[in-house]
Amino acid sequence: MEIWVNPACSKCRSALSMLDAAGAEYTVRRYLEDPPTAAELTAVLARLSLEPWDVTRTTEPVAKELGLRTWTRTPADRARWIEALAAHPKLIQRPIITADDGTTVVGRTEEAVRSVLP
């Protein structure tokens, strides 16, 4: 299992605590220091069955600088959004957890985190 975290994020810390309490084995990826590539983001989005705008933190200052709220959200815009997430990983919603069986969730709730536990 891998979890993408920002250590400053309370939701990330909570998810890590839940994984620890369950005795789960996992790898931490500090995605701000080790940003995912566009290909990795594309794969994670496919596992999540979400679009890039669904996992974008549009209230971040960089989102405002880029004007993300005005970007269109169509299949033709998908690559543009993914490139923005890859270039500015702070925009990625967190934590993202990928279980060994391929199940992937945005672990912002206890239910989501529990859903990936063995």
TrEMBL record:
It comes from the Bacteria. Keywords: Oxidoreductase. One of its GO terms (molecular function) is arsenate reductase (glutaredoxin) activity. The keyword Cytoplasm does not apply. The keyword Lipoprotein does not apply. Its EC number is 1.20.4.1. It is an enzyme of class 1 (oxidoreductase). PANTHER family: ARSENATE REDUCTASE. Belongs to the ArsC family. This is Arsenate reductase. It comes from Actinophytocola algeriensis. The lineage of its organism: Bacteria, Bacillati, Actinomycetota, Actinomycetes, Pseudonocardiales.
